[in-house]
Amino acid sequence: MARDADTGVAAAGTRAGEGTAGTAAAKDVRAPAADDSFIELDGVEKVFQVRRRTGFLRRERREVRAVDGISFRVARGEMVGYIGPNGAGKSTTIKMLTGILTPSGGRLRVAGVDPSRDRTRLAHCIGVVFGQRTTLWWDLPLKDSYRLMHRMYRIPDARYRENLDRCVELLDLADLLDKPVRQLSLGQRMRGDIAAALLHDPEVLYLDEPTIGLDIISKTKVRRFLKDLNEERSTTVLLTTHDLTDIEQLCRRVMVIDHGRLMYDGALAGLHEAGGGERVLVVDLERELPPVAVESEGPLRARVLRTEGPRQWLALPAGTSVAPLVARIAAEYPLKDLSVREPDIEDVIARMYAAGSRPAA
């Protein structure tokens, strides 16, 4: 039944359950944390020593900085996207936040607790879902995994039934409860893992690729469930995903990490401007006309991308207001309709990686 090799979290939960007298008792040991610094990182680093064979009897040791001086704060109840390419340091950060890894330097606190020094205490505060690994017991029916969670975390019976019933209904798990976990598809197991992470009412939920393997309908259900959870229970959520639709639909704030450093931390809307993308104004005129006259500088700065009959596509720098240009076109041209297309978030982030951006001082 050991799950510590997978995530380290289930085993921590087992130890956390020993000697406690239910959820109320567990909450009593939680340290207070300021609402605006519920998760707090100051100059956190993680350095790995890697050995590489350079000859028949020679080996070379070098340092790999997986996380390089990251600092940020997450307020209680925030839902934040944490994104970056493979190898950027996302999973290493999550593992330090859960206590699986110990930072090489810097200061880290979650709900006032140092994760690496007090994993038992922290286990009651957090829920974790790793997309490629499971905290469920492989050969047991799904419902038996939940019963084990019930015992490990000493969840009061009424609260356990309420949380389980809610997860089963909203995540569509009723037909899966009697199936062994090994017989579940990846998408079914993901929904099962999300439910398992929430049975003990965690204050913080770490999600690593929570919609991987899900079809469109299941993704919609999971996103709606997470949004409701955040709004109704003020659960703090740190979301790591390669599906940027998850970020767009769930998070107002996004952090972009690359090569262990924080490249961007701010509103999702500001990410477009930071990445240097372009907004596209699609103008439908009543008849075909020469390209709309635009300016290279000033409030009407734009460029004509292409024309096709009465339709014209005009590009503006991200963050630029389209209002002055729309007002002028409406006044000088027989305007029929128009729409604004924002830069594709995937293209924006790809440009940030390619440019080798670094966080502002």
Give a verbal description of the structure.
The protein is α/β, with parallel strands linked by helices and 361 residues long. The protein contains 12 helices and 13 strands. It is 33% helix and 27% strand.
Helix share bin: 25-40%
Number of continuous helical runs:
12
Question: What is the strand arrangement across the widest sheet?
Answer: 5-6-7-3-8-9
Strand content: 25-35%
Order of helices and strands: HHEEEHEHEHHHEHEHEEHEEEHEH
Biggest sheet overview? 6 strands, mixed
Q: Output mean pLDDT.
A: 83
- Chain oligomer state: single chain
How large, in whole angstroms, is the Cα Rg?
Answer: 24 Å
Unreliable stretches, pLDDT < 50, 5 or more residues? 1-33, 357-361
Structural class computed from helices and strand pairing: alpha/beta
Report the end-to-end length measured between terminal Cα atoms: 47 Å
Q: What characteristic shape results from the CA principal axes?
A: globular
Q: Total strand count, please?
A: 13
